[in-house]
Design goal:
It is built from three helices and three strands, in the order αααβββ. By secondary structure, the chain is mostly helical. Strands 1-2-3 form a three-stranded antiparallel β-sheet. The radius of gyration is 15 Å and the shape is globular. The two termini are 23 Å apart. The mean pLDDT is 90.
């Protein structure tokens, strides 16, 4: 709570914008995951997924986390995880 009390409105606004950007990337990744499942991805789409993952990782690191892309289209596509999480327990992270 002490950390939250020291945050300025600008800090909170910046975090909100970062989370919103990550949420949009999650939606774009989900769309690509559906395409991959139904039709397969073209090389251009594969590059798009790699770029989205890189953008997500940069944004996640600005918040002190890592981005994890779960590519099964039946669930959420993007999670914020910490260094103790991996592909077996990513669901303990924050689903976007």
């Amino acid at each position: 709570m002490d950390t939250l009390a020291r945050m300025t409105l600008r800090d909170v606004g910046g975090i909100a914008k970062t989370i919103d950007a990550l949420r949009k990337i999650s939606g774009q990744l989900h769309h690509q995951d559906e395409n991959a499942c139904n039709y397969g991805l073209s090389p251009r789409q594969e590059k798009r997924v790699a770029n989205l993952e890189a953008q997500a990782e940069t944004l996640a690191q600005s918040l002190g986390y890592h981005a994890y892309h779960q590519s099964d289209p039946r669930g959420a596509s993007l999670y914020l995880i910490d260094e103790t999480m991996n592909d077996t327990n990513y669901h303990n992270g924050l689903c976007l």
